[in-house]
Design a protein that fits this description.
The protein is mainly beta and about 675 residues long. The chain has two helices and 52 strands. The protein folds into five domains: about 120 residues, Jelly Rolls, CATH 2.60.120.380; about 130 residues, Sandwich (Jelly Rolls); about 130 residues, Jelly Rolls (Sandwich); about 110 residues, Immunoglobulin-like (Sandwich), CATH 2.60.40.10; about 140 residues, Coagulation Factor XIII, Chain A, domain 1 (Distorted Sandwich), CATH 2.70.50.
Length: about 675
C-alpha cells in the first residue's frame, strides 16, 4: 500500500512539473520579423503569456489576453491590412510602436464584422518599426493564422480603368474604395434594394470554359457584387449578390473562354442603426469551386467499405432551389456525393471526422432540386468525446442517395467523407409495456436502452455526461408511432434524449417507437394501450362538502396548439399552451342546467394562488365556495362538450400549474375532475 501511495505521489509530482513551452515570439524582444508582404504565417499559440508591464489592448477591458508578437518596418509610407482570418480561436489584434513596454498604442480590433477573428487597416509611416500583438480573447489559444498584405490605391473607379485579373486557382486583391463614385449611365445592381453610393471595377477573360466563385470576404463595408458583359455602359448583368449571410457578398458564375466579364463591387447603403463602420476597405477574392460543387457533378461513392475521400471545400456554393439541411439554420457552401448500392444494406454510416470547419452532413433523394431529405446531423457527440457529423440509415439496392456536406454559415476547409457498414452502439433492454387506462387518462410509455456491453443507459437530466459513462453516440431521437411495428405513416411524437412518452388515446391503440442515434436505428415491439370506458375520473361534492359518486368523466389535456395530439407536462415561458377539457357528462345530468366552473392553482416555492374563471376573465379566488364565480351560467348540459381553459403564452409565470374543470347545479352540487392536470412552466 505504501509503495502504491509513493508511486501516486511521484506521478502527481511529475505532472505538476510539466509545463507547456511558450511560443518563440511570446515576448516583445523575440517578435517574429516580417521582412516582406504579402505574407501568411501559421503557428500554435498554446502556452502564450503576457510580460511585465505589457499594456492591455485599447479595445479590451480587463479580459485575459495571452499574446504573441510580430514586427514590421516599412521603407515607404503605406496602408497595410493585418488580420487573423483562418485562426481557429477568438483573437484580438493590436498595433503598437516604441521598443519596450509599455508601448504606445496605434490601433486595436476584436471580432471584425462580428467574427471571432480580427482585422486592422493601418497607415504606417516609413522607417518606423511597428509591433503587432495577437492575443487570445479571455485566455483562448490554438492554431493562429497571421496575414499581412498591402492596401492598393483606388485606380479602378471607372469601367475603362478596370483592374485586369489573372489567376490560376485563387486570386485576392485588397484596395481602398474611399472616394469611389458611379459613372454616368452605370446601371445599379439588380439585387440591391436600398441603393448604392459608389463602385469599383475589375475585368476577367478566362482562357477556358470554367466556373468561378467571386466573394468579398475580408471587406469591412456593405458590398454588392455583380458580374456584367458588354463594352460600354449600360452593361448587361448576368449575376448579382448582396449580403451573402452578412455584409459581404458571393456569386458563382459559369464563364465562357475568351469572353470579357466585368466585375463590379458597389457600396450598398446601410440603415442608420448598423454597427458596421464603412471604411472602404475592399478585398475581392476568386476561387475555383470544387468539382462536386453542383449536384450534377456529385462524386460517386464506391461500395468497397470503408470508403474515404478527402477534399477542400473552398469556393463551394449552393445552387438555385437547393434546400438548407434541416439540422442547421444557415449553410451555403455545399459539395455532393452520390451512392447507388448494388444490394440492400441494413445500416450504412456516413461521417465526416476531424473536419477543419463546422460542417453538416445530410442524405437526400430525388433527381433535381428541391430534393427530399432522409437524414441530417451537425455535431454528433461520440463516445471518444469528439464532435463530428454522422448519420446511419438503411439503404435499398439500385437507389440513388445524395450525400451533402455543407459548411455552416458558409464555412469551408478540409473535410474527409467516410462511408462504412453501420453498427448500432445500443440495444433495447426493456420494451414499452402494454397497459390499461380509463377514458381520458394518460398512458406513459417508456423504452429502456443499454449499450453494446449491456450497461443500462439511464434517463438523466445530463444526457451528455451519462453518454461519456455508457459509451454511446448522441443525440438519441425517439420517434413514437401509432399502429403496427414498421408502419411509420402515423408519427405521434419525436423526442430528443428522453425515452419517456405520454399519450392520451381516445380508443384502444397500438404504439411503438423507433430509436435513432447517429450509429443507426432500432424499432421496438408494440405496446397496446387499452382504454376502459368503465373507468372514470369524476368526483362530486354536495353543498356541505360531502363526496358524491358520479360517472362523469373529465378529459383534460395541455398541447402546443388546438391541432396537436401530444400532451405536454412542461413548457417554457415562450411556448404556446392550449389547456382544455372534454367533459363526458354523467347520464343522470344530461339536459339539466348548470354553471361551468374553471379553477387554476399557481404554485412557486414562495406562493400558492387560486384563480377562478369569472366569465371571460381570470380572477383571484379566496377559497370560499360560496364566492366561486362561473365561467358560463345557465348552460344546458349535453352528453359531452369541450371547453378551452386557456390558449396563449404563460410568460411571467414560472412555476407549477394545476387545473380543474367542472359544473355546478343550483342546489350547490359540484362535479369535477378528481385528478388535476398539471403543467410546469420554466
Amino acid at each position: 500500500m505504501n509503495k502504491i501511495s509513493s508511486l501516486i505521489s511521484i506521478i502527481i509530482l511529475l505532472i505538476s512539473t510539466i509545463t507547456i513551452a511558450a511560443p518563440n515570439n511570446d515576448d516583445l524582444a523575440n517578435a517574429t520579423n516580417i521582412s516582406s508582404i504579402p505574407i501568411s504565417l501559421q503557428q500554435d499559440s498554446t502556452g502564450a503569456t503576457n510580460e511585465t508591464n505589457e499594456a492591455t489592448p485599447t479595445c479590451l477591458s480587463n479580459e485575459s489576453n495571452p499574446s504573441v508578437w510580430f514586427k514590421y518596418t516599412t521603407s515607404t509610407s503605406q496602408n497595410i491590412v493585418f488580420d487573423t482570418f483562418g485562426s481557429d480561436y477568438d483573437t484580438t489584434l493590436s498595433i503598437w510602436k516604441n521598443n519596450q513596454h509599455p508601448l504606445i498604442p496605434i490601433d486595436c480590433n476584436d471580432d471584425h464584422s462580428n467574427l471571432k477573428q480580427s482585422l486592422i487597416n493601418a497607415k504606417l509611416e516609413a522607417g518606423i518599426t511597428y509591433y503587432i500583438n495577437v492575443g487570445g480573447y479571455n485566455g483562448a489559444n490554438g492554431n493562429l493564422v497571421f496575414n499581412a498584405k498591402p492596401v492598393n490605391v483606388l485606380n479602378n473607379d471607372n469601367l475603362a480603368d478596370a483592374i485586369t485579373i489573372t489567376f490560376d486557382t485563387t486570386y485576392s486583391n485588397t484596395q481602398t474604395t474611399k472616394s469611389a463614385t458611379t459613372e454616368t449611365g452605370e446601371s445599379p445592381p439588380s439585387c440591391n434594394q436600398t441603393g448604392v453610393t459608389s463602385s469599383v471595377w475589375y475585368k476577367y477573360s478566362p482562357s477556358v470554359n470554367q466556373r468561378n466563385v467571386f466573394n468579398t470576404k475580408g471587406s469591412d463595408y456593405n458590398t454588392v457584387l455583380s458580374i456584367w458583359t458588354g463594352t460600354n455602359h449600360p452593361l448587361t448583368e448576368i449575376a448579382c449578390n448582396d449580403d451573402n449571410g452578412g455584409f459581404q457578398s458571393q456569386v458563382a458564375v459559369n464563364m465562357t473562354a475568351n469572353k470579357i466579364y466585368y466585375i463590379n463591387v458597389a457600396t450598398g447603403k446601410t440603415s442608420s442603426g448598423t454597427l458596421t463602420k464603412d471604411t472602404g476597405l475592399l478585398t475581392l477574392n476568386i476561387d475555383v469551386p470544387p468539382a462536386n460543387d453542383n449536384l450534377a457533378n456529385a462524386i460517386s461513392i464506391s461500395e468497397t467499405f470503408p470508403y474515404l475521400n478527402i477534399q477542400n471545400t473552398g469556393g463551394a456554393t449552393t445552387e438555385k432551389n437547393e434546400a438548407n439541411p434541416s439540422c442547421v439554420e444557415n449553410s451555403d457552401a455545399s459539395i455532393w456525393y452520390l451512392f447507388n448500392p448494388s444490394s440492400d444494406h441494413n445500416n450504412v454510416t456516413f461521417s465526416i471526422p476531424d473536419a477543419s470547419f463546422d460542417a453538416a452532413l445530410s442524405i437526400w433523394q430525388g433527381n433535381e432540386f428541391p430534393l427530399t431529405e432522409l437524414a441530417c446531423n451537425d455535431n454528433a457527440t461520440t463516445p471518444s468525446q469528439t464532435i463530428e457529423s454522422q448519420v446511419t440509415i438503411p439503404l435499398k439496392a439500385n437507389t440513388d442517395y445524395y450525400v451533402d456536406i455543407n459548411g455552416v454559415n458558409g464555412e469551408s476547409g478540409t473535410v474527409t467523407l467516410q462511408v462504412e457498414a453501420g453498427q448500432t452502439d445500443f440495444a433495447i433492454a426493456s420494451q414499452p409495456q402494454s397497459q390499461t387506462i380509463g377514458s381520458c387518462q394518460n398512458a406513459t410509455l417508456t423504452v429502456i436502452l443499454n449499450n453494446a456491453e449491456g450497461k443500462i443507459i439511464e434517463p438523466t437530466d445530463d444526457p451528455v455526461g451519462n453518454q461519456w459513462e455508457t459509451g454511446v453516440t448522441l443525440p438519441f431521437t425517439y420517434q413514437w408511432y401509432q399502429g403496427e411495428v414498421g408502419d411509420d405513416s402515423n408519427l405521434i411524437a419525436e423526442i430528443e434524449n428522453n425515452p419517456v412518452f405520454s399519450v392520451k388515446p381516445a380508443i384502444t391503440s397500438n404504439y411503438w417507437v423507433r430509436v435513432i442515434n447517429p450509429t443507426g436505428s432500432i424499432d421496438s415491439s408494440v405496446a397496446i394501450v387499452t382504454v376502459d370506458e368503465t373507468i372514470n375520473n369524476g368526483a362530486g361534492l354536495d353543498v356541505n362538502g360531502n363526496p358524491i359518486t358520479t360517472k362523469a368523466n373529465f378529459c383534460g389535456s395541455i398541447t402546443e396548439s388546438l391541432q396537436s395530439k401530444v400532451n405536454l407536462t412542461s413548457i417554457t415561458q415562450q411556448d404556446n399552451a392550449v389547456i382544455r377539457f372534454t367533459i363526458n357528462v354523467d347520464s343522470q345530468h344530461i339536459d339539466k342546467t348548470a354553471d361551468v366552473l374553471m379553477l387554476g392553482i399557481y404554485k412557486t416555492t414562495d406562493i400558492t394562488q387560486y384563480f377562478m374563471r369569472n366569465g371571460s376573465s381570470w380572477e383571484l379566488w379566496n377559497g370560499d365556495i360560496a364566492s366561486f364565480e362561473a365561467a358560463q351560467t345557465n348552460f344546458k348540459l349535453p352528453e359531452n362538450f369541450e371547453i378551452i381553459i386557456y390558449d396563449g403564452l404563460l410568460s411571467g409565470l414560472p412555476g407549477n400549474l394545476e387545473v380543474y374543470a367542472g359544473y355546478r347545479f343550483e342546489n350547490g352540487e359540484i362535479f369535477y375532475n378528481g385528478d388535476s392536470i398539471k403543467l410546469t412552466v420554466e
